[in-house]
Every structure is written in C-alpha cells, then in structure tokens.
Amino acid sequence: MLNVLSLVSYQFLPPKMGGQKCIALGNKYLAKHLNLTCITTANNVSDENVNYSVFNFLSNSKLRYINFFYFFKIKAFIKKNRISHIIIEHPYYGWLAIFLKIFCGVQLIVRSHNIEANRFKTIGKWWWKLLWQYERFVHKFADLSFFITEEDSNYAIYSFGLDKKKCVVVTYGFELECPPHLQLRNDSKASIKSTFKIADEDLIILFNGGLDYKPNQDALDVILKQINPLLIANNRFKYKIIICGKNLPSSYNNLQSYQSQNIIYAGFVDDISTYYLAADIFINPVIDGGGIKTKIVEALGYNVSLVSTKSGAIGISNQITGNKMTIIADNNWNEFAATIQKIDPNDNIPESFFNHFYWGKIAEKAYNTIKEI
Description:
Layout: E1 3-7, H1 18-30, E2 35-41, E3 53-58, H2 69-81, E4 85-89, H3 94-104, E5 107-112, H4 116-122, H5 128-141, E6 144-147, H6 150-159, E7 167-169, H7 182-195, E8 203-208, H8 214-232, E9 239-244, E10 263-267, H9 272-278, E11 281-284, H10 294-301, E12 305-309, E13 325-328, H11 333-342, H12 351-357, H13 359-370
Parallel strand pairs: 1-2, 1-4, 2-3, 4-5, 5-6, 6-7, 8-9, 8-11, 9-10, 11-12, 12-13
C-alpha cells in the first residue's frame, strides 16, 4: 500500500468552511485507498471522523511558512515512515516540499483549490504577480498537479506551461451518493420556519459564506441593494432570504434592520446542512474570487434549486445539474431576480451530478492517478 503524506499548513480540522472541507473530506476518502498521514498545525483538532494519523508538527505562527527547520523534522519522518508521495495544499509550502522531493526522493503532488495568484488579483492584492511566478514554479516542479476545475487545469497548462499529462481535475465533492429523502427536507424546513417564524407559504432563499471574504461581502451588498428590492416589488412573491456566515464586518451592524424587508441574518450556524435541507432556492451572486464555489456543490447535493452568476458557477456544468441550476450573466440583477421568481423548487437533481461530485468517486480517481506516477 502507498504511504502518502498530506502536508497542510493551516487549520482545517474540524472542517467548517468549504476549503477546510475540501481537505478534510478529500483526505478522508483518499485514506480508504492508501496509507495516509497528515502533518499540520497545532490548532487542528482531529476526532472520530478522521480515519488517518494526524501529527501537529507545525506551529500556528505565521513564521511557519519560512521556518526551514521543519525540513529536517519532516525529512526524518519521511524516512522513518517510508513515505513515497507528498501532497501539499496550495503552493505556499512549495519550497519545503521541493526540498523534501529532492533530498528524500518522494513524488510531489500539488492540490490546487484555485489559481491562487488570480484569486488575489481579483480582490486587488498588489503582490499577485509575485505569487503567480512562485505558484508557476511550484507546479512545474511537481510530479502531479490536482486542479479543482477544468478551467483551472487548462489555465495552468497554457499559462504556467505545465505538461498536460501531469494535470488532473480532482474536484470538490459531496458526501451523499443520492439526494436526501424528501421527509428529511420537509422536517428541516419545518424546523427552520418555526425557529425564524416564517410563514408556511414563504419560500426560503438561502445565501451562505464567510462574510469576512470580500467576494462574499460584495455578493451580500448585491442581495441587499439589487436583488431583494426587485423581489419586494412583486407583492405576489412570498419569500424570506436567510443569510448564514461568520465574521460579519462592523459596517453591516444594521443587517438586522432588514428583517422588515424579508432578510433574516442567522449568523454562523453549527450545522449548515439543516439550512441547505430547508432551502427552496440557493442564490450565488458572486462574481469574483476564483475557483469552484463549494457552497454551490453542497446546495445542489442537498437537492436545492440554484440561481448563480456565470462567474460563480465555474467548475459546475449545467449538463449534469439538469433544471436545478440556472446561470445568469454577471451583473444582470434584473434577470437574476426574475429567475428566482420563476424557479420550480420541486425539480430534482439528476444522478449525473453524483456520478461527478460524490467524494467516493473523486477519491478513487485521485488514487488511480497517484499510483501511476
């Protein structure tokens, strides 16, 4: 059996946000095929859901990214445990992984959650060009690059000059193999409507995301200032929009005042699955940030109808989502609001969605690729 080391440079256990779930669930399902060990930061906390060994070798300090002494400790660990492959998340620990590849003779795999440099470019970071050069260098040194979307893979092949044979799409996934039972959705809907005193005839429209992230803040502004006023204008359309997400900036302290305008701010919730199960429609008016939007995969997996911008739906083909996903051109908020009012929430997500996004199939594809390099 292959001995693989997952090197994760930040907290992802227990997983709460989409990127954290990508690592935690990707590792969980990959560990069913090979002997996986993870080295990560001190603030990670594993539990009974973690089916692989976790070693908290790395500090929580920002200086961990330039601490060369980790090389010697991890090198000894690799030798002792006969590690044959290293997987790193993002390019940030690329320098360390490259040294380990050279001096330990291991195969290097870079799992890219998006093109990091381009993501920082879209949110206005001046140093994105420096990151672009570094990201390109790390990927060119890798034996294998996993990309979360076909778009990212194609970009890396042509812009970074990568070998197409070394680039594989290993997407974000969903844990269920089929849509949840209708009774479970009905029970969750009843619970949420009771909690927030939502009328029986009202549709539940959901938006979820970390609200300290600028693309999500911009999307929230669009919901409040563009989409919701258009929905309110139709007196016959009965709905409530629930906003879930942590770290709401102080500039949004008046969000509770929108309650009279059909907006409910739920804040950070421990179990977001209940809200997905209760929702009739998920909206994603995100137009920047790059990469696949993990909240879209989760919404569709829970059989929630989705309205998204074109940029927000990158990595998810409507050929496998049937009538459950409607894509609107970026910034066309009139059409976005009109589409929300025409959606039939009773349509079902097709089986083809799970054939592509079920974690078990994704991990199997990743394993088959790893064992061939």
